[in-house]
Design goal:
This protein is an alpha+beta fold. It has helices at 97-103, 111-121, 148-155, 196-209, 213-227, 257-262, and strands spanning 6-15, 19-21, 24-34, 39-45, 60-68, 76-89, 126-129, 133-141, 173-180, 189-192, 232-237, 245-251. The model has no long low-confidence stretch (mean pLDDT 90).
Length: 263
């Protein structure tokens, strides 16, 4: 039985760096919060293959035509690519409260609480929380090249889809945050981060700063995330590994005066 189409209004809050996928040339995992205050996972989303009028950005309200995915995670829906209507953008980062009003009602106490709840009842498989302490950013080298199978996927042609002008670049590093939760029994965690913005920063700063890119990168994603911003992690589970959580996005408003008094 085919899943019934639904129309949902949602605020885009997460977009991961694309990867080659058998279901499309390249896909990006996207998370949103509906106007009913519920998590929504959109996958696959071939963002670079979308028409310019459908390329939604983070913190835009959109209207989406979706069907429930066969993915057992309850928040997962398949996006109809021609069923995207961009409605409006939230104010820029200077007005963080508009974003908090939508996001913070879904804020969890910690990752350990999300894990326990998911293991007990099967959901949520998406969440956001504030780590008690970010210890450091771990940067590890990975293979700089796509595999032959991945290249074949990226270079395949589709009858009604125009491929991007530039081939998707492989990010030759893995970025992980080592942190502790605000839970008395937290064992400590090290989670990979697949946030689009982080990968795009590497691409830009590798060009701008050459071999000195890591200094700028760590200033932004380690020092400032620890000391300057009220950093929260968007997290989600993997389809093929339902007990594995990763950081899919960063939410980092500046500290408010109340936050600073508490610190």
């Amino acid at each position: 039985m085919l899943a019934q189409e639904e129309v949902k209004k949602a605020l885009i809050v997460v977009r991961t760096y694309p990867t080659p996928a058998k279901t499309g040339v390249e896909v990006s995992c996207t998370a949103a919060i509906t106007d009913k205050g519920e998590w929504l996972r959109l996958f696959p989303v071939p963002w670079r293959l979308l028409g310019t009028g459908q390329r939604f950005r983070k913190y835009q309200w959109v209207e989406l035509t979706v069907t429930k995915a066969r993915d057992p995670r309850p928040e997962s829906y398949r996006l109809k690519q021609d069923g995207i209507k961009i409605l409006r953008s939230l104010p820029p980062r200077g007005d963080w409260q508009k974003r908090k009003d939508v996001i913070f009602p879904l804020r969890a106490h910690c990752l350990d609480c999300l894990i326990r709840k998911r293991d007990a009842q099967g959901y949520p498989t998406l969440g956001i929380f504030k780590p008690k302490k970010i210890e450091r950013l771990v940067i590890s080298e990975t293979d700089p090249n796509w595999t032959s199978a991945q290249l074949a996927i990226l270079r395949q042609r589709h009858l009604f889809i125009k491929n991007p002008e530039a081939e998707l670049q492989k990010i030759p590093f893995k970025f992980q945050y080592k942190f502790r939760c605000n839970h008395k029994d937290c064992p400590g965690h090290t989670l990979i981060c697949t946030d689009w913005e982080m990968s795009q920063s590497w691409r830009k700063w590798r060009t701008d700063y050459g071999d000195k890119w890591e200094e700028k990168f760590r200033e932004r994603y380690e020092s400032e995330m620890i000391n300057k911003y009220d950093t929260h992690f968007y997290v989600g589970t993997l389809h093929g590994h339902p007990h594995v959580w990763i950081i899919v996005g960063l939410f980092y408003p500046p500290y408010s005066p109340i936050d600073l008094r508490i610190i």
